[in-house]
Amino acid sequence: MISFPADWREANRNFRPIFVVLLAVDLLLLAAFVAGNLLVKVNVLSELPGLFGIGRESSIAEMLNYLKWVFCVGVLATCWWASRARFFVYLLVVFALILADDSLLIHETYGWTVAEVFGIPPTFGLDPKHIGEVVIF
User: Fold this and answer.
1) Helix (H) or strand (E) holding 51
2) d(CA 72, CA 93)
3) Which among 76, 133, 83 is positioned nearest to 108, based on CA atoms?
4) CA-CA distances (angstroms) from residue 63 to 39, 66, 70, 102, 115?
5) What percent of the chain has pLDDT over 70?
6) 76-92 tens-digit pLDDT
7) Residues of the chain scoring pLDDT < 70
8) Residue 126 pairs with which residues in a beta bridge?
9) Which of 10, 28, 62, 73 lies 20 to 30 A from 103 at CA?
10) Could you count the other beta carbons within 10 Å of the beta carbon of residue 99?
11) CA–CA separation, 98 vs 105, rounded Å?
12) How far apart are CA 68 and CA 75, in angstroms?
């Protein structure tokens, strides 16, 4: 049986500042990305600096994303430690696999391989590589 805090409002109160900060940082990074692209469109910048791209592996947004996955794994490990409920271990494994896939570029790297091995045709306007990425993930 999973034991949770008797007063969920207290747990909510403790987590809310963390959530607000993470959300604010995400919104700031998104705003920087949009502003940077607008500056490129009006020829103020020649190109968007790589640190502010949201699709680049070495960008600030992606590094923050890795930190959030690590944070989730840590919180789940703490929940498991406190309750010894296997449910948290299962979730911890899922989040650790997502972190590994995201940081090691597993589905991006092997998408074409899966598409070729299984002969996946283009579907719904998507390249076979993208369908292979979803299969791997």
Assistant:
1) none
2) 11
3) 133
4) 24, 5, 11, 11, 29
5) 91
6) 898 888 888 899 999 99
7) 1-13
8) 123
9) 28
10) 17
11) 10
12) 10
What are the start-end ranges of the H helices in the chain? 8-41, 60-83, 86-104, 106-118, 128-136
Structure tokens of 106?
């597993």
Q: What is the CA radius of gyration of the chain?
A: 20
Q: Please tell me the predicted confidence (pLDDT) of residue 4.
A: 57
**Which SS3 state, helix, strand or coil, does residue 1 take?**
coil
Are the C-beta atoms of residues 108 and 86 closer than 8 Å to each other?
no
Q: How far apart are CA 18 and CA 26, in angstroms?
A: 12
Which residue type does 106 have?
I
Q: Which two tokens stand for residue 134?
A: 């979803």
Exposed / middle / buried, residue 104 (Cβ in 10 Å: 0-12, 13-18, 19+): exposed
Given a contact cutoff of 8 angstroms between Cβ atoms, the answer to whether 101 and 107 are in contact is yes
Q: Is the pTM of this model over 0.85?
A: no
Tokens of 61: 């947004």
